[in-house]
Amino acid sequence: MKEARVIMDTGAHAAALAVKSARVDVVPGYPITPQSSIMEAVAAMVENGELDARFIPVEGEHSTLAAAVAAAAAGARVFTATSSNGLLYMHEVLHMAAGGRLPVVMCNVNRGIFAPWTLWADQQDSFAQRDTGWIQYHCSSNQEVFNTILQAFRVAEQINIPVMVNFDGFTISHCLMPLTLPPQEDIDRFLPPHKPEWRLDPAHPSSFSNVTNAAEYAPFRQMLSSDIMASIPLVKQAAQEYKDITGMWDGDTIDAYRLEDAEVVAFAVNSMAAELRLSIDILREQGIKAGLLRLRLYLPFPADDIVSALPQNAQVMVLDRNYNFGHPGGILAAELKSVLFGRRSDITVKNRVMGIGGVDLTRRYMAAEIRAMMDE
Amino acid sequence: MLELRINGFGGQGSVTLAHLLAQAALENGEQGQALPFFGVERRGAPVRAAVRMSPTAIHAHSQCELPDYVVVMSEKLTAAAVSEGIAENGAVIINAPHAAAVEKRPTWQVDADAIAREAGLFSADGLFINIPLFGAVCRVLNIPQNIMEQTILHKWPGKNGERNLDAAARAYNTVKQISV
After folding, report:
1. Which residues in chain B have Cβ-Cβ distances shorter than 8 Å to A272?
2. A253 has pLDDT over 80
3. Are A10 and A135 contained in the same domain?
4. Of the candidates B22, B32, B60, which has its C-beta nearest A278's C-beta?
5. Residues A121 and A202 grouped into a single domain
6. What pairs with residue A27 in β-bridges?
7. Residue pLDDT, tens place only, B25-45
8. Is the pLDDT of residue A330 over 70?
9. For a tag on chain A, would you pick the N or C end, based on fewer CB atoms within 10 A?
10. How many domains does chain B have?
11. What is the DSSP track for A35-92?
C-alpha cells in the first residue's frame, strides 16, 4: 500500500493539488489577487498533462461562473476559484448554479471588498453571498483547504448543490506549510467519479431552467431550502469517511479546542481561528477557563451542533472579521444569536469586529481583546 | 515554537529565504512555516517575512510581532527592523561587512554580499544574498550542515544547487557572534 507524502506548499497550491486529486473535468478561470496562484497552478497542470481537464480562460468572473454552470449542466466535474470583487461580480450566476442544482465547487480566497481597494483578508465577500443557496465551508489551514475541496465535491454531487470553499488571502493562500498528500488510490476511494442523474446532452435534447409558474417555482425553491438543511449530515459523513480513509480531521460542521470546561468561548472562522488556539492557551495560563468553537460550515449554519457544543453558562466572544451593516458588530454574532434564541438562555454573546482588510491578528492581541470583553 | 522575522528590501530574495528556512525545518524533522507579508511590491521597498519552526503543529498565522530572531538583509535596515518588535531575549543576524553589535542584544554578523559575489551568485539585478544568509541562519539555529545542504539540493537539484551549496557552506562556517 502506498504511503501519504508530506511536502511544503502554499494554501493556493494546496487547492490546486486537491483539484488535480479530484480528477476535475473542466476549470473556467479568471485571475484576481490573491486567487491567481490557484488558477496559474491548475492551468500549468492542464498544460503539462498532469491533469486531464479543459481549462477555459474567460474575460471576467460573470462568464467564469456561466461557463462553470454550463459545463456542470453537461455533466462535468467543475472547479473554479475567485476572490472579493470577483465573487461579487458572479453574484447573479451564483443563484443560477444553486437554483439549477449544479454541483460546482469553487474556492473563494477571502479578501476585503472595494471601495477603497484592499488586497488582504476579511470575510465580507463570502458572507455577502449568504442568500445565494450555496453551501459554504471556511478553512483555517492549508491542509484543511486540500481536505475540504475533496469533501466539498462529495457533498455537492450527493445533493446537487454548489459548494464554496473559503480561506484567507495571503495568510493561507501564500503561506508555506507542510501538506500531507494521501495516496491517489485513497482519494479515488473517497471520491468516486461523478455520475450525474441528469445532464444536457445534444443527442437527447431537453430544456433546462425554463420559465415556471408559481405552482412549479415555489416547490423548486422549497426543495432547495430543505436540501441545503439536509446537507448537514452529508457534511459530517464526508468528514468522518475522509478521516477513516486518510486519518486527517479538521472538524465537521464545527471544530472545538479546550471547549469542554470553558467558561469563556471564542467563536470565529478562518485563519484567525487557528491563531486563536494560541490565544486560548495564553488565557488558560492566566487562569481563565477559555475555549474555542471554530465554525467550519457557515452555510447551512449548524445550529444544533453549536447549541449542544456550548458549555453551560458560557460567555461567547464572537470575533467577526466583517461588518453587519445596519446592526452594531458583525455577521457571525447575529447568526449565532438567532440560533441561541429560545434554546440557550444561559449563554451570553459579546461581539467585536477586528482584522478588517488584513489587519494582523496576533495571539496576544486577541487574548487581550477577549479579556477586555469579559469586563464589558 | 521558534519565530523569525526577515527584514529586507524588495528584490533581495526574502521570500525565497523564508521558504528555504521553512523547508529546512521540515528536512530537520520539525514543522515549518513561511509567511511573507505581501504589500504592493516594489523593488527596493522595505519587505518582511515571518518564519516559524516547531516540533509540534503550527497554528499561528500572524506576522511575527516579537520574534526570537530578526534577520536583517541589509545593515541599513538594522535599527528599523529591531524597532518593529523583537522578543525580550531576541537576537539579531545582520548581513554586513563589519556590523556593529545591536545594543544589549546577541548579534551575529555575516558578509553575505562578499560571499555571493565571490561565488558568482549574481545577475543583472544584483546579488543573491539569500543563499549565504540561509547558510548563516542555519548555523545560528544549530540546524546541521547536512540538513542545510539537503534543503538547497531539494530546491535546486543539479549544477545550480552545487554553486549555492558552496556559498551557503561558506556563510555557515564564517557567520560570527559579535555580542552575546
Report:
1. 61
2. yes
3. yes
4. B60
5. yes
6. A55
7. 999 999 999 999 987 667 788
8. yes
9. N
10. 1
11. THHHHHHHHHHHHTTSS--EEEE-SSHHHHHHHHHHHHHTT--BEEEE-HHHHHHTHH
- C-alpha–C-alpha distance, residues B55 and B44, integer Å: 35
Query: Which residue, A193, A223, A246, sits at the end of a domain?
Result: A246
DSSP assignment letter at B176: E
pLDDT of A15 > 80? The answer is yes
In three-state secondary structure terms, A165 is strand
C-alpha cell recorded at residue B160: 545550480
Disruptive mutation site among A5, A6, A8 for chain B (greatest number of B CBs within 10 Å)? A8
Buried b (16+ CB within 10 A) or exposed e, B135-166: bbbbbbbebeeebbbebbeebeeeeeeebbbb
Number of structural domains (chain A) is 2
A60 shares its domain with A93: yes
CB-CB contact of A26 with A54 (8 Å): yes
For residues A214 and A324, membership in a common domain is answered with no
Domain identity same for A264 and A201:
no
What average pLDDT does the segment A220-235 reach?
98
Q: How far is CA B144 from the centre of its chain?
A: 15
Partnered with residue A148 across adjacent β-strands are: none
- Write out pLDDT tens, residues A260-299: 999 999 999 999 999 999 999 999 999 999 999 999 999 9
CATH of the domain at B127: 3.40.920.10
- Residues 6 or more apart in contact with residue A221 via CB below 8 angstroms: A99
| Residue B164 main-chain phi, psi, to 5 deg | -65, -35
Average pLDDT in chain A: 97
Q: Tell me which chain A residues have a C-beta less than 8 angstroms from the C-beta of B65.
A: 360, 362, 364
Beta bridge partners of A291: A265
Average pLDDT for residues B82-100, to the nearest whole number? 95
Chain B environment of A119 (Cβ under 8 Å):
38, 40
The amino acid at residue A114 is: F
Here the cell at position A263 is: 467558561
The three grid cell numbers given for residue A176, joined into one nine-digit string = 508555506
Strands B176-179 and A290-295: unpaired
Q: Which domain holds residue A321?
A: 254-374
Query: How many CA atoms lie less than 13 Å away from A162 in the CB half-sphere?
Result: 31
**How many angstroms separate the Cα of A118 from the Cα of each of A29, A34, A167, A359, B119?**
21, 11, 16, 11, 41
Owning domain of residue B123? 2-179
Q: What is the predicted pLDDT for the residue at B126?
A: 87
